[in-house]
Design goal:
Blueprint lengths: L49 H16 L3 H11 L6 H12 L2 H11 L7 H19 L6 H8 L6 H12 L12 H16 L30 E6 L6 E6 L5 E6 L4 E7 L4 E8 L8 E4 L5 E5 L6 E6 L5 E6 L8 E4 L5 E5 L5 E5 L4 E4 L5 E6 L4 E6 L3 E6 L4 E7 L4 E6 L5 E6 L3 E6 L4 E5 L13 E3 L5 E5 L5 E5 L7 E3 L6 E6 L7 E5 L4 E5 L17 E2 L2
Antiparallel strand pairs: 1-28, 1-29, 2-3, 3-4, 4-5, 6-7, 7-8, 8-9, 10-11, 11-12, 12-13, 14-15, 15-16, 16-17, 18-19, 19-20, 20-21, 22-23, 23-24, 24-25, 26-27, 27-28
Helix pairs in contact: 1-2, 3-4, 3-7, 4-5, 5-7
Length: about 550
C-alpha cells in the first residue's frame, strides 16, 4: 500500500516496478503466476484503487487459509490481483515443501526486494540453513529432546510455517503478505471497539469466536456491576475498610465496632458467607491488607492505635503483634511483593520496615504517612502531610519525589502493574497519575469528598476501571480513560468509606459505609431474589 493510502485516479500504472508490488492485469493464477484463462481484455479493464487491491489480496489470503483454493483462484483471475510477488510465492512454496536448494535460488531473486539488502539476505539464509540442519541431523538423543532444546516443532508444516513467518519480517508486505492479515485487522478493529465501550468488562476469546463481525461491539449496562446483590449487616457500627483476598475467595471488613470479620466469597453465585469474627481491637479496625500468600492479614486501627496485628486468616490466630512505642500511630500498612516483609506508618511520623515475624528491620524518621504502597521488595511509595507521594528505597535508604498535589492527599492506591496511582485528594476527588512519567493523567468528576478518609481502587477487566466511595452515600465507577462516571451506585445511607473490586471476578465489588453495612455489587443477572432469606450468619441478607 502507498504510504498515504491514496488510490489510482486515471488508470495509469504505478511508477513502482513490478518487483515492488504484485502487478494487476492480465489475470493471474495461484501464487501470482500469470495465466491466460479465456478472460477477455474488456472483462479485466476495471481499474482497482490501491485500497481495493489490498482488500482483494487479503480476502484471497483468507480464502486460501480456509481451504477454499478454487474460490481464491477465481478471485485472483477475475480481479487480476496477484496475492504475492511471483518469486515470493515460489519461495513460500519451496520452504513449505522443504526444497532447500530452490529456496537459495529464490533468495538471489529476492535480494533487491529485501528491506535490509544483503545483510538481511544473510540472516534469511541462516534461518533456512538452521531449519535444513535440524531436519537432517539429530543432535540429541531423541526427537523430543531435540524439539525441547531447540524450541523447534519438528520436521513438517508447523515448523516450516513458523520459518516462513520469521522470514517474512525481512520482506515488505507488498511482496509477501503477513500471515492471517485479515484476521489481524479484524482483531484490531474489535479491540478498538472494546476500548471505546464504556461497559466492556467481560473477557472475550482471542479468536473472535465469541463476537459477531456483522455489528459493532457494545456491552449493555446490565452486564456491568450496578446493582446490590447482597447486604452484610454483621457489623454494629461504621465500617471503615474492606478488601478482597488476592485470590478473590475471601473478604475482610473492619469496623469502628472493634471487629474484623472474614467472609467466604462464592464468585459463581455472588454470595458472601460469614466465616469468623476477630474482635481484639479496642480502637476499631481502620485498615486491612491481605498478604500476597492469601493467608495472612495486616490490621491497623485509627490514629490512636500504636500496634499492628498479623492474623492467620484460616485459623483466626494472631501470628504477630507489632508494638514499638505507646505514642506511635500506625494507621497504614502495605505488604512487600514477596509476602515476607511489610511497612507500617502513620501521621505522627512513624515509618517502620518489618518482617512477618514482627522484627523491625529499618526505620524512616519524621515521615507523616497518609498512605502506603509497595512497588517491589525494596521500594515503597508513601503519601505524607506535604501533599506529596515520595518513593523510599529501603535498600539504599534514599528517597525520591513522585507526585505533588496542591491539596492534602487522603489516601492512594497503585494498580497491579505498578504504573498508575489513584489518589484521593481532599476537596478535589480522585486523580489518576502516571508513576513513570510523574504526570497527572485525569481528574475524575462527580465524587463528593471533603476531608473524610475514603479508599478507592482499581478493578474490572484488565483493571480498566476505578471506583471510589463518596460523602454523598454513593459509589462512583469510572473508566480510567474517561473523566465522567460510567456508573453511580446508590443504596448506602451514609458516607461510603471504602470500595474494593474482587481481583478475580471483574463483575464483583464491595463497599463499606458509615451506615454499618457492606454491600456486594454485581450485574443485574447476578441479583439474588430470595426475599426474607438470610445467609448462614443470620445477619446477611440478599436484596
Amino acid at each position: 500500500m502507498q504510504a498515504n493510502g491514496s488510490s489510482q485516479h486515471n488508470g495509469t500504472s504505478r511508477s513502482d516496478p513490478f518487483d515492488s508490488r504484485p502487478r494487476r492485469n492480465p489475470p493471474s493464477t495461484s501464487n501470482g503466476e500469470l495465466a491466460s484463462n479465456g478472460t477477455s481484455a474488456s472483462q479485466s479493464t476495471k481499474i482497482l484503487s490501491s485500497i481495493d487491491e489490498d482488500i482483494v489480496r487479503l480476502i484471497g489470503q483468507h480464502l486460501r487459509g480456509l481451504g477454499f483454493n478454487q474460490t481464491a483462484e477465481q478471485l485472483i483471475a477475475e480481479s487480476g490481483c496477484a496475492l504475492e510477488h511471483p518469486t515470493a510465492a515460489s519461495f513460500r512454496a519451496h520452504v513449505m515443501d522443504g526444497q532447500w536448494d530452490r529456496t537459495e535460488e529464490d533468495l538471489r531473486e529476492l535480494e533487491s526486494l529485501v528491506k535490509g539488502g544483503k545483510e538481511d539476505i544473510v540472516k534469511m539464509r541462516f534461518l533456512l540453513l538452521e531449519q535444513k540442519y535440524l531436519e537432517l541431523y539429530m543432535m540429541c538423543s531423541s526427537a523430543a529432546e531435540l524439539r525441547e532444546s531447540s524450541e523447534w516443532d519438528g520436521k513438517g508444516p508447523v515448523s516450516r510455517q513458523k520459518l516462513i513467518e520469521n522470514l517474512q519480517e525481512f520482506l515488505p508486505p507488498s511482496i509477501m503478505l503477513p500471515p492471517r492479515r485479515l484476521f489481524t485487522l479484524l482483531s484490531q478493529a474489535v479491540e478498538q471497539q472494546k476500548e471505546k465501550c464504556p461497559y466492556h468488562n467481560t473477557q472475550l476469546d482471542s479468536d473472535l469466536s465469541s463476537i459477531s463481525l456483522l455489528m459493532d461491539h457494545i456491552c449493555t449496562k446490565e452486564q456491568f456491576p450496578n446493582v446490590t446483590t447482597q447486604v452484610l449487616w454483621d457489623h454494629q457500627d461504621e465500617v471503615w475498610h474492606c478488601q478482597f483476598s488476592p485470590d478473590g475467595t475471601r473478604l475482610a471488613t473492619g469496623s469502628k465496632d472493634n471487629k474484623l470479620i472474614i467472609w467466604q466469597v462464592n464468585t459463581e453465585h455472588f454470595e458472601v458467607r460469614h466465616l469468623r469474627t476477630l474482635d481484639e481491637h479496642k480502637y476499631g479496625v481502620g485498615f486491612v491488607s491481605w498478604c500476597p500468600d492469601n493467608l495472612h492479614i495486616l490490621v491497623c486501627g485509627p490514629d490512636e492505635t500504636s500496634e499492628v496485628f498479623i492474623y492467620n486468616s484460616v485459623t483466626g490466630e494472631v501470628r504477630q503483634r507489632i508494638h514499638q512505642n505507646a505514642d506511635d500511630s500506625l494507621t497504614y500498612a502495605a505488604w512487600m511483593t514477596d509476602g515476607r516483609k511489610f511497612v507500617v506508618g502513620g501521621v505522627r511520623g512513624q515509618f517502620y520496615f518489618c518482617d512477618i515475624d514482627g522484627n523491625v528491620l529499618d526505620t524512616w524518621e519524621g515521615i507523616r504517612v497518609q498512605g502506603l504502597a509497595a512497588l517491589d521488595d525494596k521500594v515503597v511509595l508513601a503519601a505524607d502531610t506535604h501533599h506529596r507521594i515520595k518513593g523510599y528505597d529501603f535498600d539504599t535508604l534514599q528517597d525520591f519525589p513522585v507526585i505533588q498535589e496542591d491539596h492534602p492527599i487522603m489516601t492512594f492506591v497503585v494498580d497491579d502493574k505498578k504504573e498508575l496511582a489513584l489518589v484521593n485528594v481532599a476537596s478535589q476527588g480522585c486523580h489518576l497519575w502516571d508513576l513513570k512519567d510523574k504526570v497527572l493523567l485525569r481528574k475524575f468528576h462527580g465524587q463528593s469528598q471533603a476531608f473524610f478518609t475514603i479508599y478507592s481502587c482499581f478493578g474490572g477487566l484488565n483493571q480498566d476501571y476505578v471506583a471510589s466511595g463518596s460523602e454523598d452515600h454513593k459509589v462512583f465507577i469510572w473508566h480510567k480513560r474517561r473523566e465522567a462516571p460510567v456508573a453511580v451506585l446508590e443504596g448506602h445511607r451514609l458516607t461510603v468509606n471504602c470500595v474494593h473490586w474482587n481481583p478475580t471476578e471483574p463483575s464483583m465489588l464491595a463497599s463499606a459505609s458509615d451506615d454499618g453495612t457492606v454491600r456486594i455489587w454485581g450485574p443485574k443477572d447476578k441479583l439474588r431474589r430470595r426475599k426474607d432469606s438470610l445467609t448462614s450468619s443470620g445477619r446477611s441478607s440478599p436484596v
